[in-house]
Amino acid sequence: MSLDALAAALPEYAEDIRRNLRSVLGDSPLTEQQAWGAALACAVASRDPRVLAEIADEASGRLSAEAVTAAKAAASIMAMSNVYYRAKHLIGDDAYAAMPARLAMRVTARPGVDKLDFELWALAVSAIGGCGACLETHEKRLRAAGVPAEAAHEALRIAAVVHAVAVTLGAERVLS
């Protein structure tokens, strides 16, 4: 299994997605850990078994065991956070904004990898989760720590493409 197998599985109408997949993961200005951690976290968030299996297989050869665990943790914690904070935001009542989350999120303090890499992965997963509050928070933390906007942009590109691959292959399984 490999990234090439994922690209080959995409139908002809998704040629742009195939090219983008090779581009965002084959020529990323991010470090290998940042790019592949984002890809793995986004594959988990995209919920497609084949995409997850292929990207996890490729990522396991590029990431330490700690980074693999941290990428999965980023997807897991953001699955909860994206729902919670998106809902609070969409309700739009300041009473909810003042209420504490009271949800355990200890992994964000000690993710097992560089905290900025974890923030980058949380940002990418939040793009898939559609949580504006989480996107804003993680982007501001990255920028405050000196991470350039271009790095956040690359993580968003990875999220967009990994999610598009998952949507396309999932649709093909159902429609074929």
UniProtKB/TrEMBL annotation:
Disulfide bonds join 131-134. Coiled coil: none annotated. GO terms for biological process: cell redox homeostasis; response to oxidative stress. Keywords: Antioxidant, Disulfide bond, Oxidoreductase, Peroxidase, Redox-active center. Gene3D superfamilies: AhpD-like (1.20.1290.10). It catalyses: N(6)-[(R)-dihydrolipoyl]-L-lysyl-[lipoyl-carrier protein] + a hydroperoxide = N(6)-[(R)-lipoyl]-L-lysyl-[lipoyl-carrier protein] + an alcohol + H2O. It comes from the Bacteria. One of its GO terms (molecular function) is peroxiredoxin activity. The active site is at residues 131, 134. Transmembrane segments: none annotated. Residues 96-174 form the Carboxymuconolactone decarboxylase-like domain. It holds the Pfam family CMD. InterPro entries: AhpD (IPR004674), AhpD-like (IPR029032), AhpD_core (IPR004675), CMD-like (IPR003779). Its EC number is 1.11.1.28. Antioxidant protein with alkyl hydroperoxidase activity. Required for the reduction of the AhpC active site cysteine residues and for the regeneration of the AhpC enzyme activity. Homotrimer. Belongs to the AhpD family. NCBIfam families: ahpD (TIGR00777), ahpD_dom (TIGR00778). This is Alkyl hydroperoxide reductase AhpD. It comes from Actinokineospora fastidiosa.
